[in-house]
Structure formats: C-alpha cells, structure tokens
Task: structure prediction
Amino acid sequence: MAIDYTQRIPNNVDLSSDRRLQRALENWQPRFLDWWKDMGPDGTTNFDVYLRTAISAEANGWAHFGYVKMPEYRWGIFLAGQDPNRLIAYGDNKGKPAWQEVPGELRSTLRRLIVTQGDTEPASVEQQRQLGKTAPSLYDLRNVFQVNVEEGRHLWAMVYLLHAYFGRDGREEAEMLLERHSGDPDKPRILGAFNEKTPDWLSFFMFTYFTDRDGKYQLASLAESGFDPLSRSCRFMLIEEAHHMFVGESGVQRIVQRTCDLMREHKTDDVRGLGAIDLPTIQKYLNFHFSVSLDLFGQEASTNAANYYTMGVKGRYLETRIADDHVLADSTFEMDTAENGRIVRKTVPALSALNERLRNDYVEDCAKGLLRWNRAIEQAGIDFELKLPHRAFNRRIGTFAELHVSPDGKVMSEADWKANEQKWLPTGEDRAFVTSLMGPAVIEPGKFANWIAPPQRGINNQAANFEYVRFN
Ligand code: BYC
Result:
C-alpha cells in the first residue's frame, strides 16, 4: 500500500479505517512532539534541513530528498509489504502461517521485546541532543538530524504496534516510552548503552557504527518474528538503519584519514598539538563503544532467547538462509564462557546460545569497517592497526562481567585492571581533549573542522559546498 501523506499521521496501514486506533495515535502525536521539543535536537526549530522522507516502503526508490523544517518532519507508520503466504520459519510453530494478531500466550513476551526495541529509539535522540552545536560541517549536521528524525520514526513504528495490538497496556507502554529518559537516575532507559552520554562527534560516529549496528542485528532477528506486523515494521526500519551505520563508518574513516594526513605532513605521532585526534585515542573510544554494544546482546546463556526462538517470536540473523532444521532441539554451539575465573571454550545447547550466536554475527560485521579504516592508515605508511578488543573486555552483562580482561583477552586481577584501564578506555583527560576540539558548529558550506576530512561525496550526490542546512 502507498504511503498516504494527506493524513495527520502519514501511514501505509489504512489507519483511517480504524477510527479508535487513529484517535488514540492522534492523542499520542502531540505528546511525541512535546518530547521532541524538550528532548530532541536542541535549538533547531527554525532550521530547514535537507532530509530524506519515505515515500514508499519498498527498498528501491523509497525516499524523497528536500528541505524540511525539522519539527514539521512527517513522522508516520510505514510497514514493508505483506506476504500473504508467509510462514513461520523456525521453532515449535515452524510451517504455520505467520500471525496477524498477537497470540494470547505470547502477549507479554512480544510486548516486552517491542518495548525494549522502542525504548532505544528515543533514547538515542536524547543522547544526541546537543551534538548540532558542535557539528564539524553542514554535511555532518544534516546527517545527525537525519539519524534523529528516523530514530523518532522508529519510535513511531513500535508505538503503532503497541497501540494497535496491545490494548490498554500497549497505550500505557507508549506513554512510558516518552517518560523514561537517557541517563535519568529515576527513570533511565532500559538498556545500558542508551544511558551513556554521546557528548562529542567521535562518540557519535562510534555509536552509529557500533550501537546502531546492534540495532541492525536485533531488527533483523525481529524481522524473522512470527508476528507479522512486527516483522514488517522491522524490515522497513532496517532500510533506514543502513544510512545510520554509513554515517558511523564514514565518520570514523574521515577522522582517521585526517589524523593520518596530519601525521604524514608533519612527520609526527603527536597530532593533538595540531588539533586532531591521535590514533591511540580513537582506539580507546572504539574499545569503549564496542564493549558497551556487545552488552546489548544480553546473556551468553539465555533461556529467554531460547524461548523467543522456540515460540517463533525472535529468530536468528537471516534465519531462512541457514541450512539446518530451524528447531535446534538437538543442536549444540561452541562458545567461550567464564568459569572459575578463566575463559573456557564450552559446547552448549544451541537454543540457549542464540544471543551469543547473534553477537558472533555482529562481531564479524563490525570487523569489516576496521579493515577499511586500517587500509587508510596503511596507505599513509603508518605503523598502527585499529583492533576490536576481545569480547570479554569491559563487559557489564553476561558471563564475562565477573572477570577483568585486557583487550587482547588476558584475564587479570582487579588491581592489574585498575593499573591499566586508562590505557584501554578513554580517560577524563582524553574526553576533555576530544571535547576541546568540538568548537562551535562549522556552518559555512563546504568547510570542515580541522580534525575531520571531507566526505568523498555529498548526500544524494550533492556538490561539496551544498547548503545542507539553512538557519533562517
Ligand atoms: N542491559 O536472558 P537475557 C537499536 C537483562 S539497538 C540491561 O540475555 P534477553 C538502536 C534482561 O532484560 C537494538 N539489562 O535477556 C541502536 C533480562 O532481565 P530479566 C535494541 C539487560 O531478553 C542505536 C536479564 O538481563 N533492540 O535498535 O534474552 C540507535 C537476562 O538476560 C541487558 C533490542 O534489544 C542489557 N544490555 O536479551 C537507536 C531487541 N541485557 O528477564 C536504536 C529487543 C540483558 O532477568 N530486545 N539484560 O528481568 C531483546 O531481544 C532482548 O531484550 C535483549 C536481552 C537481547 C536486549
């Protein structure tokens, strides 16, 4: 179904045919806009931003680019097309038709997953609220705003499901999604990484590279859900998500490039004095964001994950492309786990290891960006390699949370960890330095802050000096 933009809430779910639902969502809409005003990008009400807006929910040719005043962005409800013959691909319900309504016995499980997913979306907007003030260019300013409006739309995607399929509880949960706030000591966001700060652009690019990538893997698993409206919501969200990870990967790449250019030009490792971010500091930020994002996959051994799978609620990454029985009752999986203060390899039932399996898929994907970043370092003739730290490094969730582990995977005492931690994770001083580089936003078209290289091409193939944001 095409997206109907004549409605107060743009949608492709024929919202006007269900007056009660439409009214409920129209009641939620002003609360969302109040939240955006209070917690979204600060001081941007009058900006015209060159944004893409969905005009179709299919992958090819889905977006329109044009100037939008940000609070007038048309947030709406867009689900990928329905396959009327879709079958559940795994678990006890394998082979049965996908559910168009929520099965009673799965109600609370599904609601919880949808709420957890929904909670991350506004959280990230809150985390990024102040970034516009220090944007290194108009191009980057436009990109953070694009990410923000789409995370806002992802919130709409989950709120639609809560309202449409979970009755009163769902409406209450939708309210709560606007009441919890990132880092709020009384009402924090649900998952740890979403209560961290994103105070500078290196953090932002690392966040969009590593944490948005968790989004990709979680959404892909939920896209396998037997609950078809959730699956269709996530499939369209994944199309939007790809740009967010591009922003992260290319952002880090441009910082690395600029650092290498300065190192070569001035024949020095000490680029801090030249107003750029040294490679060891980039590595520390990478260590932090990777480890915090690994926590988002949950416990290594998880009966929750096993139950989600068996019930047909949450699948594996690209479930239908995996060649096995899709039931996993007799399958095993090998993974590292903490035991008696050591890391040991164990064979465990595959069903209980599904979080870890997804984490493996994620780690493999994360490594690809590092190959490209390292190529830039190598091409500059610099002897330095960015590395993903060991998966047990700096964990708060799961089996490794009880251990202290170095980036290369060595288990150590708390005293040794304390003595070395500042070599591996950003210190207060590192953060203060990176923050000190974040000057007032660079708003002259085609100009960039000193610590980052320009992108290789513009958004939607625009020229290098395109005016991505007009301030009015
Ligand atoms: N923090 O059996 P386990 C995105 C709790 S990002 C705090 O492993 P489960 C985005 C857990 O709740 C993607 N608590 O749990 C990115 C459980 O509590 P109970 C977001 C945690 O449920 C950037 C207990 O520990 N989407 O889209 O299998 C910008 C046992 O754990 C954490 C989703 O997460 C944690 N990190 O796994 C914008 C998808 N981890 O039951 C957006 C939906 C675990 O003992 N969520 N716990 O009280 C899920 O699939 C699952 O909830 C999780 C956790 C994978 C997160």
Notes: Strands lie at 48-54, 63-69, 332-339, 342-349, 404-405, 411-412, 469-470. Residues 145 and 361 are 29 Å apart (CA to CA). Residues 113, 116-117, 120-121, 124, 151, 191-192, 211-212, 214-215, 218, 295-299, 302, 304-305, 314, 355, 397 surround benzoyl coenzyme A (CB under 6 Å). The chain has eleven helices and seven strands.
